[in-house]
Design brief:
29% helix; seven-stranded antiparallel sheet; 17% strand; alpha+beta; three-stranded antiparallel sheet; 2 domains; Beta-lactamase
């Protein structure tokens, strides 16, 4: 097993660490189903921005910079792959404007609803391990979540909700009276308890209400459904949702930096960017019940409760590594089986669109994410090109910003005539001292 060392500089820290070659381009079979990272400070393989100083990407960079200037976005991280190879990874703007720390590809961003793709992949992993099926019932005495606190429900139709229904947003809930994941005061009042509310509190709250439609007979985008899927993963696996995803999906891929993020600035993880809201902004009540008025970015939203629906933080390069491992192409070893990947995207099998992915359009799989202070977009194209774009600034456009990001990336990518033949996921340690283009290791 070959080892590399690298020194991180210019990103707010200086550290030396060792990375196994198996972590750079892993083969799933090399690890057990519950692999734990070696040592206590294992990190993902970090690629510095200067390794992507390439004239072939100059037009794309101009497009990204122009877009950021127009939309008043402080920082961004962009990763692009071609035929399973990471060919571009660069940061733009500031990870922390006040400290003048520039974004690097290793910086972690809140990825909002991109978290749903991670959760869907986790469900597929449990299916492959034989621990559940997509037709398993979620509630009721014979359901997965048959804990006593969930056996009192107002609408008997909840007994028909399956894992598949939650994956495809057809569980029976809408946001007619508000998004259940963003109304902690109402939940607490309904349950006659003090803030903060837990995930189990939110589930109890919705079980006390009637469903908005019969499960499986319609679909409505549901953050609640994916939060519940996180609880399904915890119950079936016997370990916390985050730990299951890390040990059964991320660590085997050499992804060690991804985690559920914190709600407050003081909970900011190492290498995590600072988040900014569009101006003018407004304040909301602290979700934890302190009585203080806070920014939605820092205290307004409960990131731990969002968890499986929108709570993960990740770098663009780690998200790229995950996407390549579930894209169905042979150019990079897939971690999930071909059957699982097909189940996630086959519109002949799924009644209401892909599972985990946001949409499939013009042979491109998209996953978007929007939350106060962040926007994210992942895309996997049939021509072997894939990209990840993360921003640390909110926009009044909300989810519509993803369409603008896609147009910017499509214009930039279409200008590339000569694709690099190197792979930034496979490089030796010469770059740390020479700052030369990486050498490919076979």
């Amino acid at each position: 097993m070959r080892l590399f060392y690298k020194t991180l500089a210019g990103v707010g820290i200086t550290a030396t660490l060792w990375v196994s070659s198996a972590m750079v381009n892993p083969v799933a079979e090399s690890y057990g189903s519950e692999f734990s990272p070696p040592g206590t400070k294992a990190t993902s393989f970090h690629v510095p921005s200067f390794m992507s100083d390439n004239e072939d990407f100059s037009y794309l960079e101009k497009q990204v910079e122009r877009f950021m200037h127009r939309e008043l976005l402080e920082g961004a991280s962009v990763a692009i792959a071609k035929d399973g190879k990471l060919v571009y990874a660069k940061g733009f703007g500031y990870a922390d404007k006040e400290m003048e720390i520039a974004v690097e590809p290793s910086h972690l961003f809140r990825i909002a609803s991109v978290s749903k793709l991670i959760t869907a992949a986790g469900i597929m992993r449990l299916k492959e391990q034989g621990r559940l099926t997509l037709d398993d019932k979620v509630f009721g005495e014979t359901g997965i979540l048959n804990d006593s606190i969930y056996l009192k429900y107002r609408d008997k139709r909840v007994e028909d909700i399956t894992v598949r229904h939650l994956l495809e947003h057809s569980g029976g809930w809408t946001t007619r009276w508000g998004d259940q994941m963003f109304m902690p005061t109402i939940v607490a009042s309904s349950l006659h308890k003090a803030l903060p509310v837990s995930k189990s509190d939110i589930i109890r709250f919705v079980l006390n209400k009637r469903l908005h439609f019969t499960p499986g007979q319609s679909a409505y985008y549901s953050n609640l459904g994916y939060m519940i899927l996180g609880e399904v993963i915890s119950k079936v696996s016997g370990i916390e949702y985050e730990k299951y995803i890390q040990t059964n999906l991320l660590y085997p891929l050499g992804i060690f930096d991804m985690r559920i993020g914190g709600s407050y600035l003081h909970e900011r993880a190492e290498l995590e960017v600072k988040y900014y809201e569009p101006t003018p902004t407004f304040y909301v009540s602290d979700h934890s019940g302190t009585g203080e008025e806070v920014l939605r970015t820092y205290g307004g939203n409960d990131m731990q409760a969002l968890g499986a629906a929108g709570g993960w933080i990740a770098s663009s390069t780690d998200l790229m590594k995950l996407m390549l491992a579930i894209d169905g192409f042979s150019t990079y070893p897939d971690f999930l089986s071909s059957e699982s990947i097909r189940l996630m995207v086959d519109d002949e099998i799924n009644n209401y669109g892909p599972l985990g992915w946001r949409r499939i359009r013009s042979n491109t799989w998209f996953r978007t994410g929007t939350l106060a202070g962040t926007s994210a977009l992942m895309a996997r194209q049939d021509d072997g090109i894939a990209y990840v774009v993360l921003f640390n600034t909110g926009s009044w456009k909300g989810p519509a910003l993803a369409n603008d990001i896609a147009r910017v990336m499509n214009r930039g990518i279409s200008s590339i005539e000569n694709w690099p033949d190197y792979n930034l996921f496979q490089m030796d340690n010469t770059w740390a001292s020479t700052r030369k283009r990486p050498q490919v290791i076979y």
